[in-house]
Every structure is written in structure tokens, then in C-alpha cells.
């Protein structure tokens, strides 16, 4: 095949791909009944929104300090409680510790169910049950942390060196003694790293829990959006961005020192 024919073939191939993508786009728009004409006709609102968003109201920052502290407190407390619950469950979720496939399967099934529930849905359920407030946010973060950290922890346990375990069992140690003296020292640094990672994730998650009434700075963000106070929204987003960046850096530094 000549070079000219090869180029011509590739050009036709790319054209066919573009046509197929356009057809799929149109079919998707028809199925979902998406009206992109409204997006074009309302594009002027984007300019209005952006022009106000790029001018944050710095005078509003002092009012954000207390909600921001509550958000960090929610994240810290929820992470701490979730990790405390996750530690024993992670040991029970692996046959390395239990020696019983049925028991470990039951705990893994529970963890799988917990991890499949989205955080916002979990928060909405707890708000409906327990009401609006920071306590609901803490409970949501606790359950989310429990599901995530337990999964990471029991997977870490299954990758350890089994020689100390065999030595402990050979001298007649119980399963509990084996877990404390043969397994825990090998996975402690990983457990600590996962805990700080969970805190990092929870700080991000807790900022949006206020949308469903779970407390923190998300409540103010939601109300500011509802009142079209875009200058305040910009300041809130900027505050959250800086806070998350600082927590990320701190968490990353601690996790590197532990591994």
C-alpha cells in the first residue's frame, strides 16, 4: 500500500470514529431527554456567576472559622472512632487471625455492605433518623472510616510474614496473643498510615456533608448557594481548598515518615 493510500485510509478511519461518536452522543441525548439548547441559551448566566465567583468576600472569613473548626473536629473524631472499631474487625475479617473461614466471611460481607453505601446517602439516612447536627456528621464519618480502613487493614494483615505466627502457635500461644505479638508489630505502621489517609479523605468529605444537614462548613456553603451569595461561596470554597491542601500535606508527610 502506498503512503498516500495509507494516509487516506487513516483519515477515513478517524472520520468514521467521529461520526460514530456523534451518533452515540445524539442517541444518549435522546434517551436521557437532555436539552443542550437550554445550556446554550442560558450561557450568559455562567458569565454572571463567574464574575461574582472570582471576587471572594474576604470580610466573611471570620464567620467561617467556627464552622471550619467544627468540620475538622467532625473529621478527627469520626476518623478516631472509626479506626478504633476497624482495628478489631480487620483482624476478625482475615482467616490468618481467626482460623475460621465462616467467621471471616461474615465480617467481610458486613464490610462489603458498609462500603457500598455512598457517604451522602449514609448522611441523609442518619439525618432522617437522628436529626440535623454535627453528631450526625461524626456518625457518618465513623461508619465511612470503619468500612474503608477495615478493608485496607485486613488486606495488609494477609500480606505479612507468617514465620512469627507459626512460631507463636508452635509454643502454644492463643489466637489473641498471636494477633498482639506476631501480627500487630508488622502492620502497625501501615495501620497508622491508613488512619491518617482516612482523616485526609474525611476532611474533604465532611465539607459536603452539610448539604444534607450533617453539620460543619457545608451548611454555610449550602445556604450561601441558596441565597445566591456567590462572593461568600467563593470565599468558602477558597477556605476549604486551602484547608484540604494543608491537611493533605500534613497527612502525606506523616504517612511517609511511618512507611
Automatic annotation (TrEMBL):
Keywords: Cell membrane, Membrane, Transmembrane, Transmembrane helix, Transport
InterPro entries named in the record: MetI-like, MetI-like_sf, PhnE/PtxC
Origin: domain of life: Bacteria
Protein name from the UniProt record: Phosphonate ABC transporter, permease protein PhnE
Pfam families the record matches: BPD_transp_1
Domain ABC transmembrane type-1 positions: 68-251
Gene3D superfamilies, A to Z: MetI-like
Species assigned in the record: Vagococcus allomyrinae
UniProt entry tagged with the keyword Oxidoreductase: no
Gene name of this polypeptide: phnE
One Gene Ontology cellular component annotation held by this UniProt entry: plasma membrane
CDD domains in UniProt: TM_PBP2
GO molecular function annotations of the record: ABC-type phosphonate transporter activity
Chief localization: membrane
Amino acid at each position: 500500500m502506498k503512503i498516500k493510500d495509507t494516509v487516506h485510509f487513516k483519515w477515513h478511519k478517524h472520520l468514521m470514529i467521529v461520526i460514530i461518536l456523534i451518533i452515540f452522543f445524539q442517541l444518549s441525548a435522546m434517551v436521557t431527554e437532555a436539552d443542550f439548547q437550554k445550556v446554550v441559551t442560558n450561557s450568559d448566566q455562567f458569565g454572571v456567576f463567574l464574575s461574582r465567583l472570582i471576587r471572594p468576600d474576604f470580610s466573611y472569613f471570620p464567620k467561617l472559622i467556627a464552622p471550619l473548626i467544627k468540620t475538622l473536629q467532625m473529621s478527627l473524631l469520626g476518623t478516631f472512632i472509626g479506626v478504633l472499631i476497624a482495628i478489631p474487625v480487620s483482624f476478625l475479617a482475615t482467616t490468618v487471625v481467626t482460623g475460621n473461614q465462616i467467621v471471616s466471611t461474615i465480617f467481610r460481607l458486613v464490610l462489603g455492605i458498609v462500603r457500598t453505601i455512598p457517604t451522602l446517602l449514609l448522611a441523609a439516612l442518619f439525618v432522617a433518623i437522628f436529626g440535623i447536627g454535627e453528631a450526625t456528621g461524626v456518625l457518618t464519618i465513623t461508619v465511612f472510616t470503619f468500612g474503608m480502613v477495615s478493608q485496607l487493614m485486613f488486606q495488609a494483615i494477609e500480606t505479612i510474614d507468617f514465620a512469627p505466627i507459626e512460631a507463636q502457635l508452635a509454643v502454644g500461644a492463643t489466637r489473641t496473643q498471636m494477633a498482639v505479638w506476631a501480627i500487630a508489630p508488622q502492620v502497625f505502621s501501615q495501620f497508622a498510615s491508613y488512619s491518617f489517609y482516612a482523616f485526609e479523605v474525611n476532611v474533604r468529605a465532611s465539607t459536603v456533608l452539610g448539604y444534607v444537614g450533617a453539620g460543619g462548613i457545608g451548611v454555610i456553603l449550602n445556604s450561601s448557594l441558596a441565597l445566591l451569595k456567590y462572593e461568600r461561596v467563593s470565599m468558602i470554597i477558597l477556605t476549604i481548598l486551602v484547608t484540604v491542601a494543608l491537611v493533605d500535606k500534613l497527612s502525606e508527610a506523616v504517612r511517609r515518615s511511618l512507611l
